[in-house]
Every structure is written in C-alpha cells, then in structure tokens.
Design goal:
The complex is a heterodimer. Helices cover 48% and strands 17% of the residues of chain A. Chain A is elongated, with a radius of gyration of 37 Å. The longest helix of chain A is centred in the last third of the chain and has 32 residues, at 726-757. By secondary structure, chain A is α/β, with parallel strands linked by helices. Chain A folds into four domains: 5-105 and 171-263, P-loop containing nucleotide triphosphate hydrolases (Rossmann fold, 3-Layer(aba) Sandwich), CATH 3.40.50; 281-523, 3-Layer(aba) Sandwich (Rossmann fold), CATH 3.40.50.300; 553-589 and 725-918, no CATH class; 599-708, abc type-2 transporter like fold (3-Layer(aba) Sandwich), CATH 3.40.1710.10. In chain B, helix 1 packs across helix 10, helix 4 crosses helix 7 (125-148) and helix 8 (172-202) packs antiparallel against helix 10. The chains are: A alpha/beta, B alpha/beta. The interface between A and B is large, with 156 and 143 residues.
C-alpha cells in the first residue's frame, strides 16, 4: 500500500469520498440527480432515507461496481472513471451489497467463502489461513466454519459477508443495508463487531446505508437523502437540532418536502373492540415440523383470535417462516395440527386459500409483469368479479402509493416499493387472514408507518386477523400479542408491555435480547465470547502484491478453485456431464447409421414368370431390402408409398419374360421414396447395382463367360475403413460434438448464473481482471472436458472397437486445444446473456446445429455451400473432426495435421480476446 | 379446474416471454435464419464431391474421362501426381482419388482390360457409396462410348426406369428445411416450458402461486398452452414464409393438417419439458439433462438417418418417443401429400404419448411442489 500512503492514514479534513454533480439514470428513471457531497474520512457515515432514493446506486458507484454516467466520483484521491485508478484503489475498498449473502457462494463453506476473497486479494496461503481463523473467531463464526453459506441464518450470512469484506484490510468499508432482515441480537452483535474493528483501525472509513434510524443515531455523520438528492448532512445531533425533533425518525420526516410530509401520520392503533369476539381464526396445537433429523418447529401451540394482530419475533432461522408455510399449506406438518377458522389446513381446500393472504419473505411476484399486471393477475386468480377488478386495483394502488410506478417492472423498483407491492397483492382479494413474513424488511420508516396504519385499519375495522413476523421492535410493540421464538420453540407469548415488564421493565428490545441470550446460553455452552483483536491481522501488509498487475495467477486460481469446489458440491452436474457424454456417444454412434439396410420394398409383378420372379428374388435376397406383400394395383402402390411403408416399389411389365427371351426392348419400373433424399440416393445406387449384376448374370447365361470380362476394371479401394462400418466413420466424429456442446453449456451457465444470482458483483468490485476471471472460470471445465475426452476415446476404442491407428499424443494435444476453444466459446456466448434460459437455448442453437451439420459429421465440409460452407471452414469442430478422423482411422501424426492444428491454435487467442472485450467490468 | 385461471396464467407466461428480447431474438433466429442457412447448406445429393485424378496415361481416353466430371456432382477434378494422392486423402482434401494407369488407352484398345484404381475415403460415409457409384457409371459410359467408335457391342436391352417419387430431384434442401423445423420445434418447446418452471422455482414465485386458489393442473396447463402456442405460431410462420416462400419447397399435403399434428406433438413435448424440469434441481442440471434427452430424440427419430437401419431394439424403444411419430407424420404429409386416412395412426400415437407424458408430469409436478 506504499503507493497510497495518504489513503491509509488520511487526515481528518480530507474527504474520503468526493462527489461532484453525480447523476444516474436507469432508462427514463432518474436514480441520482446532481449529487455533490464530501464524505469525511475515518468516520462512520450513514446514508439514510426512504427506499429508492438512490442510496444503493450511490454506494455501488463509489465502490466502482457501476459505470459512472454523469459527474465525478473521487474515492481515495482519485477519479473512479479512470480504470487505472479503480484498479489501484479497489484493493483498499470493501463493498458488501444489499441482500442477505448476495455476494456469497451458497454451496461453499464459510471458510471457503472467505478464502476465495483472500485469494482474490492476493494473499498467500499461510497469511490467508491465519486471517480467516482470526476473523471467524472474532465474529464468533469459527464453530461453523465448515457449514455451507446457503445454510446460514441471515445474521450469520451478514457476519460472514463482513469477514469477506475485511479480509484485505480495506481503508474504506461500504455496507449497503447490512442489518436489514437480521434479528435484534445479531444486529447488535454486528455493530459491536464494527465498533471493535474501528477501534483497532481508527483510520478506516465506514459508509453505511441503513433503514434503521436507531442505528443511524449512533453514527458519526449522516447524509439524509430523498428522491436522488441530498436533503441534509451533519452529525445526528446537528440534524436533531436543525429540525427541532428528539429522534431521528421524526427528524427525517421533518426534513422531507412538505408534500411528502403531509402523507405521514403517527400510527395510532385503537384498542380492540370488545365486540370483536373471541372466535379463533388461527390455531396451532403441538405443531412440529422436521426436515430429516433437524426440528425446525418444535411442538408449537398458539391461538389467534379473529381480528387480532399477532407478532412473531425471533432470531433468523428460528422457525417463523416454517410455521407460516405450514399455515398456508405450503408445507405439511410432521406432527400436531394447524387450523384456520376451525378447519384443518388442507392444501387442496381452495375455499380456505381464498380467505388467506400470504406474503413471503423474499420478493416472489412476477418480475416480468408490471405492477398493474401483477395486481390484475392476482385479482383474477382470486376470482374477483371481473367488473370489480379495476376498482379494486385502483384502490390498492392508492392505498399503497403505487400510482407513479404502476407500469414499471418490479426489478426496477427499490426493495421497499416491492414489499409494498407484495402486500398489495396479498390483500387484493380482501382476505380474512393475512400471513405476513417480515413484510417491512428493508422498508423505510415513513412507508413502514403507512403500512402499519393499513394493518391497523384492517384489523380494527374489517376484523382481519393478522399474523406477522418482524425484526423491528417498534412494530412488535404495536401488536396485540407477540411470541418470541428461538430454535423452533416459543420462549414467551404475551402482550408487548407484559414481556417488557417481566424482564425488568426496560424496552422490548432489551427484553428480547435478554431472552435470546438466555436461550443461547442454555443450548450452547461451548461458545466462548468473541475476543476481538482484529487489528493484529492488519499488521501483515504483504497483501497487495500483484494487485496492480494485469494478470495474477493467484487471482485466476481463486476463481478456478471456487468453480471447481462448486462443481464438486454439485455432483449431479458433474455426473450428468460425464455420464451424459457416454450415453450420447452410445446413442449417436448407433443412431447415425449410414449402413442403409433392411429397406422395405414390394413388387408389382404383372408378368409372374420364372424370369420376372428371378429378378424380384434377387432384390429380396439382398441384405439391403426386405420384401413386403406384393403390390396389387396402382392405387395400392400409391397408398403404400404415401404412408411411407415402402421405400422402393418395382413394377415388372406384362410379357417381361417373353421380351427378355426375345431380346426386344423392355423396361422395368422402379419408384423410390424421395422424401428422405439421402436414403433415396442409397436405394437408387443399390438398385442400379443389382440391376447391373442381374444383367451380367443374364449375359453370362446367354453368351457364356467371355461376356463377363469387362472392357476395363475399376478397382475401388475403400481407404481408412475397409469394412465400411458406419461406426468407424461416426464414433470419432461424435467425440468433437460432445466435447463441444457439454463444456460450452457448462461454461456459459457458470457466468450467466453469477449474473442472474448476483454474485457477479464480486468480479466488479475486486481487483480481478477480465482475463483472470475468464481463464479462472474456464479451467475446471477444461479439466472436466479432458476427463470426458479420455472416457469417450476409451469408449470408442474398447466398446465400439474402432481401431486407433495414429498418434495418440497428437490427438490428445488437439483435444486439449479444442476443449479450451469450446469452453471459451461458452464464455463468449455468456457475455451476451443475462438469463439462464436464454443462455441454454443460445448455446444449444449456436453449437448443436453447426457441429452436427456444418462440421463434416455427415456431409464433408468441402461439399457444403453458402453460409454453411463458410461456417464449416472456420468452425473449430470441423478442424477437430479432421484431426480425430485422421488420428483414428488414417494413422496420422502432428506433421500431417499441421493445417487443422494451426487453425485451432489461432482460434484460442481470438476467442479469449473476444471474451475479454465483451465482458463488462462494471454494471451499466 | 377453472379455465379462467389457465387462461390468465398462460397470458402471464406470454407477457413474461415478450419481456425477454434475447429469447425472442433467439426464437426468430431459430425459425428463420437457422432454417434458411441449414437448408441452403445441405448439399444436393452428391454435391461438389472432392475428386482428384492422377493421370499417368495422358491419352485421349484418359482426357475423356477427366473432362466427364463436372460440377455440381463433383468438383472440377484436380490433377495431381501419384505422390500427392495419399497426403491429400490423409488431410481430408479429397474424398475420391481416381488413378488412371500408364498405357490405359493402349491396353483398352488391345482388350487387355486395364484397371483403373478408385480410392475412396470411407470415413465419409455419406458420399463414399453414392459417389463411387456415380464415378463407376461415368467412367463406364465414357469408356464404352470411347470404344464404340472402334467396335460395336450389343448390351441387353433391359432398361431400368428409376424414378424418385415426391421429390424427383432428390432435393436435400427440402428435407433439411423441414427437418430443421422439427428440431427447432422440439428444442424450443422443451426449453420454454421446462426452463420457465425452474425459473419460477429459483425466483420463489411458484410457492406464491400455490397459496392462491390455483391447482397444479392449472399451472401446468397454462404453461403448456401458452408456450405451445408460441412455438406453433413460430413454426407456422416459418413453414409458410421461409420454407414455402423463400426456399420454394413444394409442400405435398395439407398445411392445416400438419399444424394440427404439430399441436398434438407440442402437447407431448411441453409436458416432457415440465417433466425434465421437475427432475432437474437447478438450471445447469436442466441444461445438461436437456442435451441428454434432446440429442438422442433427434438422432434416433428417423429424421437424420432412416429408422430401418437402426437396431430393432432402438426402433422399438423409439416408438415411445413423440419425435418418431411426428417425423413420420411430417414426412408423410409434407412430402408425400398424405391425408388424414394415412396419418391417423400417428395422430393417435401422439395423443396417447402426450396424454401419458402429461399425466406423468402432473404427478411429478405435484410432488415437486411439496
């Protein structure tokens, strides 16, 4: 880090981030509008504001993950539009994107996840292990180091994300809503962790976007944002003073423009009316759900009265979601029972479904439909009367403030707005019960208050029963009753006031944390409290070597190793790739059969003499034809040929025998089914040959042996495949096809999958270069393809008994070049594709057709015409087919195959260059 | 079951598809450019077969033979030396090499029955047989005509009038075009339904659907009709404008009957797509499974090589695949002009196979949702 000494120990006055008139648009939506801002260094800075005001966009611009459209972004004393500066600074920046574990790899263990990031930043093995041990220990994750990231609770995922971010001692830590969807205890631990780290590394600047105002209150400096603009900046105290309020929630609302402020009203939930009755809407008795030997929900019992607002609180993964899924009929209960309106939950009971509205934790509406289309679709599916749909949709749009996004696609909307849409959809059919799984996760305070007002109205006025889970304590306080859950069990269930009172009358949050700590202490006595001393890790500063070079094998191998691990964790994929190739080889080797035999034919012998029968018999006796019942008349002939029953029909005219004996002119009629030209062609040549043979026989009978010696002889030598076995021609040609399609699909998906699931962000914000990324991803698939190659070759030689006559070394070298090409083709295709469906289809289309049709598998390339001929000349499969046939059947070596070898060698850099040129290092 | 739900969900599928421009572009490509180039590239029977001749005689008789070979069946023969012959064959430059020995003409006239050697690259099966047949008859004609100036011989007066029905010129591009439509139809219908289902699961929307008053049957039926419709429209447009229009292929039978058969076929393939999707966990697994199923189906359906030549067991197994029946049906209607009376067994088979596949997928789909 000697190259940027200022950045690691900045003076307090120099800003770490300087934004000048920064603007950003997605299509016609203006996400950021002329932001000018200096963010001081070595501070904990919070970005606060409602959803969709551009906080995330701003952070991704600062992290270098997104291309800058307008204005200047200076981070750590350099312009982020400058690629060289980005490369220099990205080892000093750590970025944790929004969404639980979005940049983690779910099948990799905790250790492997952190290890991957360590490699990306060029640490050597010893250093990595030391640091990872320490980070995991300090975050209390060490006991779970081998657990796959996908199986972690939300809080653990976020801690792991933090470990990944801290592995390279960043000077600037950027966290985008790191505690959204995380339970209070984990949240508290998370911030304690950050505090400790900051104490040890006071020079580090931290920039956080958050929706929790109580968290923001503890930050050093705040930026309040709204609608792509900055509303105010300053310390929390300054903001409170400026607005004359006593808490940040209120301060923020006061900062909003008049028009928006008017929308906000303090949530007041009237007490339940006595006439709301005591009939039970939701009831669970000894409800238990097990997944294998893991008990997710453990003998849960509760009753929720009609019209009640019932809150579910608990750490991540404590069984809240599972319980809700059982109530909606998505999951069957292992034991016990769940009842809605006194009726046992039955997934086939459509009437009950219509009375329940459910909102799942993850956004699960159709991202390909607009807001309006989503609402309308659900209205129709819930069988609202067609004439009321329009009004109901309008009503919902108004209630949830969706009017200005009515025609937008959900993906373009910020999280909070999407949650509002989800709720609108869950309520479109005016259900009697609403089951809401963390509905306000990631939603800003103003919107949350509005949301709760709606819930209140529904409960108190419409007598709707609401079963809601949340991590927000102020929301929990609004419930009629709450249950605290941990590890599948309810710890306590009562009114919020009572619960707080029982633990010494502090806040509900304190009570909750106390209950959780008790429960954790009871179950997990082994855990030692974290003893953070993260600064020790910061001493070793050999980290950044290679960070500035264009190609660092270590970073490349980071991707290789990760990809290989993922492949290993998904044995089905690897097995399918290998076993699939063998099955296909078998099928194609037998299926593409050029030995045309057993063709159906029938004769219409209108002569029926010895001679005519002899003629027909000659055809029937050959192995090429199978005789069917004779043709009776022309109609029969026509019908049977039309149906495809006959490939060949022979008509022998009346008086044939007599005419042959007399030596007068006579003609035999033959019809070939031309629907399949290649077959027809073969039939034609067979018939011609048999006719000629028959004539020669006749001639011998008539004129004696003298006539049989021809004027000349044509000696036909079938080279390379003397028995003319189809398999000898086909098996070697099938290998190139299989080595193309499967590796190409795997390589394409490996990149497109990252794009679709979001982990591509790691490529955007870490020092890894495009070439390292591509080659790194490619290597495991090259290895897999080579394994395939050896298996396929063995299969051809030992099972199909195709003799191998040439140089195996040459063949293997060519195969290596070829699989490098085919995987690179996959990577090039992946750069155009964003969805996995399109990627599969495109790869199938771009590989299968050229490989089977233009590469000399059946028709030689030299015989192709038009575009096909051009493709056949440049398509690598064609060259490799030449090499496989040459080495298999023609006994060739390197020297004889220099042409195709050269073609393969030239293709590799071309494809890699293309891949690098097309791959984007930043999101657009 | 409610038809309303099926219609609404199907419309949702269509809307989703229209939001994916890349997918639309690929569909258009698959049914236009891909079909056009594939059919144009298909060589016409024996086309431009690479022929080289080693002429060691340099006599009028040899010249006569050499000049008899001409495009389109053969390339203009390249005259090479004896030493070049094998290297060129090894490199795959020539499929045929004809060697006319020294003193060929002299021996011919002296009735010494000289031997011409024809070397054939037998790894190129498609041309090896037909090509050597052609060469044999061309050389034979030339030799006998050459000799006829010197002597007369009376061959047996028995002619063989061989005609190809339905496609008299054995025009391969017709065949190629139809074949490519069939393979695009298969590929697309399986991918569209199967991948759409996996996508719904990966994005969690399927779960959302199931808390609504919608049955698995309705979800599945909606995917089948909507994606089937897309493919059917694409296939019709392609058949009418690309195959009949641009490629000027003469279609023998009734296009509506063929499209009806296609609809039945799509019923089967879309059900198969759902079945595959429920068997595969993730998109990469689906991709691989797809290849594993798609390629054998295409290769063994009788579209690329005649069914008769396959081992009997494969022929019988393939009777269970919808492709086989669809290929038979397509060839019968489009080339041979067959009507309902001829193709009804195939239609019935498609209906039965489609029904079974639908039933199996529905069962699996229900389990998949649990």
């Amino acid at each position: 880090m000697s190259d940027a000494p200022n950045a690691s120990h900045p003076s307090a006055s120099a800003p770490v981030i300087r934004l000048e008139a920064v603007g950003l648009s997605y299509g016609t939506t203006r996400a950021l509008d002329g932001i000018t801002l200096d963010i001081p260094a070595s501070r904990m800075v919070g970005l606060i504001g409602p959803d969709g005001v551009g906080k995330s966009s701003l952070l991704s611009l600062v992290a270098g993950g997104r291309a800058i459209q307008d204005g200047h972004v200076h981070v750590l004393d350099g312009d982020m539009t400058d690629a060289a500066h980005r490369r220099r600074t990205c080892p000093q920046i750590a970025y944790m994107p929004q969404g639980l574990g979005k940049n983690l790899y779910p099948t990799l263990s905790m250790f492997e996840n952190v290890d991957f990031f360590g490699r990306l930043f060029g640490h050597d093995r010893r250093e990595r292990e030391e640091r990872i041990q320490q980070l995991l220990r300090d975050t209390g994750l060490a006991p779970f180091a081998d657990r796959p990231a996908g199986k972690l609770s939300g809080g653990m995922k976020q801690k792991l994300g933090l470990c990944c971010a801290l592995i390279h001692d960043p000077d600037l830590l950027i966290l985008d809503e790191p505690t959204t969807g995380v339970d209070p205890l984990s949240r508290r631990q998370f911030w304690e962790l950050i505090e400790t780290i900051r104490k040890d590394r006071p020079g580090m600047s931290v920039t956080v976007a958050t929706a929790y105002m109580e968290e923001a209150a503890r930050f050093d400096w705040l930026v309040a944002m709204d609608d792509g603009r900055v509303l105010a900046t300053g310390t929390p105290a300054e903001l409170l003073r400026q607005t004359g309020t006593d808490n940040l929630d209120a301060a923020f609302i006061a900062l909003l423009p008049e028009e928006q402020r008017r929308k906000h009203r303090e949530v007041v939930i009237p007490p339940r009316r006595s006439d709301q009755g005591g009939d039970v809407a939701i009831e669970a008795k000894e409800l238990t759900v097990r997944f294998g030997d893991f008990t997710a929900v453990d003998h849960l019992t509760f009753r929720i009265a009609r019209g009640e607002i019932f809150g579910f609180l608990g750490s991540n993964g404590c069984g809240k979601t599972t319980t809700m899924k059982v109530l909606t009929g998505l999951l069957p209960a292992s034991e016990g029972e769940a009842r809605l309106f006194g009726r046992e939950v039955d997934p086939n009971d459509m009437d009950v479904r219509r009375r329940v509205g459910y909102m799942s934790q993850a956004f699960s509406l159709y991202s390909e439909l607009t807001v309006r289309q989503n609402l309308e679709l659900h209205a129709r599916l819930f069988r609202l009367a067609p004439d009321t749909i329009e009004e109901r949709v309008r009503d919902m749009v108004e209630r949830f403030d969706l009017a200005n996004v009515i025609d937008a696609l959900p993906d373009a909307l910020p999280l909070g707005v999407r949650q509002r849409l989800s709720l609108a959809v869950a309520m479109i059919h005016a259900p009697d019960i609403l089951i809401l799984d963390e509905p306000t996760s990631g939603v800003d305070p103003v919107a949350r208050d509005g949301f709760w007002q709606i819930l209140s109205d529904l409960s108190r006025q419409d007598n709707v029963t609401i079963f809601v889970s949340t991590h927000f304590m102020n929301e929990a306080e609004r419930c009629d009753r709450i249950s605290l859950m941990h590890a599948g069990k309810v710890m306590i269930s009562d009114t919020p006031e009572q619960i707080a009172a029982r633990r010494g009358g502090g806040s509900l949050e304190e009570a909750f944390v106390a209950y959780l700590k008790d429960a954790i202490a009871a179950t997990d006595t082994t855990k030692t409290p974290p003893t953070p001393h993260i600064a020790a890790a910061a001493k070793t500063h050999g980290a950044m070597h290679g960070a500035l070079s264009f190609f660092d094998p270590r970073r490349m191998f980071a991707y290789t190793q990760r990809e290989a691990l993922e492949l290993k964790r998904d044995p089905i994929r690897a097995t399918l790739a290998i076993l699939g190739s063998l099955i296909l080889m078998f099928v194609m080797g037998y299926g593409i059969n050029m030995d045309v035999e057993d063709l159906s034919f029938a004769a219409m012998d209108r002569d029926d003499t010895t001679i005519s029968r002899d003629y027909v018999l000659q055809i029937a006796g050959s192995r090429y034809f199978t005789e069917l019942a004779p043709i009776t008349d022309y109609d029969d002939l026509d019908r049977r040929m039309r149906s495809g029953e006959l490939s060949l029909a022979i008509e022998i005219p009346p008086g044939f025998g007599r005419d042959v004996a007399r030596g007068s002119n006579v003609q035999i009629g033959a019809w070939v089914d031309g629907a399949m030209p290649s077959r027809a062609e073969t039939v034609r040549s067979y018939v011609h040959a048999m006719h000629a043979t028959w004539l020669a026989q006749r001639a011998r009978q008539l004129y004696g042996n003298a006539a049989t010696t021809g004027d000349y002889q044509l000696e036909v030598r079938f080279l390379y495949n003397p028995d003319i076995r189809s398999i000898v021609a086909m098996a070697p040609a099938v290998i190139p096809i299989l080595l193309l399609i499967i590796p190409a699909i795997l390589a394409t998906l490996s990149v497109v999958r990252e794009k679709e699931l979001g982990s591509i962000i790691n490529f955007y914000v870490t020092p890894v270069t495009r070439l390292e990324f591509l080659i790194g991803k490619q290597l495991p698939y090259v290895a897999l393809a080579m394994l395939n190659f050896f298996l396929l070759t063995a299969f051809a030689v030992f099972i199909f008994r195709v003799p191998f006559t040439g140089s195996f070394v040459a063949f293997t070298s060519a195969a290596l070049l070829y699989v490098i090409i085919t995987t690179a083709m996959g990577l090039v295709i992946s750069s155009f594709m964003t969805s996995q469906i399109a990627a599969i289809f495109a790869t199938a289309l771009l590989t299968m057709i050229p490989a089977t049709q233009y590469s000399g598998l059946v028709d030689p390339v030299s015989s192709l015409q038009g575009a096909g001929a051009v493709i056949g000349r440049i398509y690598p499969t064609a060259h490799f087919v030449t090499i496989t046939r040459g080495t298999f059947s023609k006994g060739l070596d390197f020297g004889d195959l220099s042409g195709p070898f050269l073609a393969l060698i030239v293709t590799i850099p071309v494809l890699l260059a293309l891949g690098v040129a097309l791959l984007k290092k930043q999101a657009k | 079951m409610r038809t309303g739900n099926i219609v609404q969900l199907g419309i949702k599928e269509l809307r989703g598809l229209f939001r994916d421009p890349m997918m639309l572009a690929l569909i258009v490509y698959a049914f236009t450019v891909s079909i056009y180039t594939a059919s144009k590239a298909q060589p016409e029977t024996l086309n431009q077969a690479a022929l080289a001749i080693v002429d060691e005689d340099n006599s009028p008789a040899a010249t006569r033979i050499i000049t008899a070979f001409s495009p389109p069946f053969f390339t203009v023969p390249r005259l090479i030396s004896q030493s070049e012959m094998m290297t060129r064959m090894d490199a795959g430059l020539d499929t045929f090499a004809l060697n006319i020995p020294p003193n060929f003409q002299r021996d011919l006239l002296a009735r010494r029955s000289p031997a011409i050697q024809l070397n054939v690259d037998a790894t190129r099966m498609s041309q090896a047989f037909t090509g050597s047949g052609y060469i044999q008859s061309i050389v034979g004609d030339e030799v006998s005509e050459f000799l006829s100036r010197y002597r007369s011989a009376a061959p047996l007066p028995i002619d063989l009038a061989l005609r190809a029905r339905f496609n008299p010129e054995l025009n391969k591009s017709w065949f190629g075009a139809i074949n490519n439509i069939i393979s695009s139809v298969t590929m697309l219908s399986i991918i569209l339904t199967g991948a759409a289902l996996i996508r719904e699961r990966e994005h969690g929307t399927i779960e959302h659907l199931l808390v609504m008053p919608v049955t698995p049957f309705e979800v599945m039926a909606s995917k089948i009709w909507s994606m089937g419709l897309v493919v059917l429209v694409a296939a019709s447009v392609s058949l009418i404008f690309i195959v009949q229009g641009l490629l000027a292929v003469r279609i023998g039978g009734s296009v509506p009957l063929f499209l009806f058969g296609t609809a039945l076929y799509l019923f089967a393939t879309t059900s198969m797509g759902i079945f595959l999707a429920t068997s595969a966990g993730t998109m990469p697994q689906f991709g691989l499974l797809l290849m594993l199923v798609l390629m054998p189906l295409q290769m063994l359906s009788g579209a690329t090589t005649p069914r008769e030549s396959m081992p009997e067991i494969i022929q019988n197994i393939m009777l269970a695949a919808p492709n086989t029946h669809f290929v038979i049906l397509a060839q019968a209607i489009l080339f041979r002009g067959a009507g309902l009376a001829v193709v009804w067994p195939q239609l019935a088979a498609l209906l039965v196979i489609g029904g079974i596949l639908f039933f199996l997928s529905l069962r699996r789909f229900r389990q998949f949702l649990q």
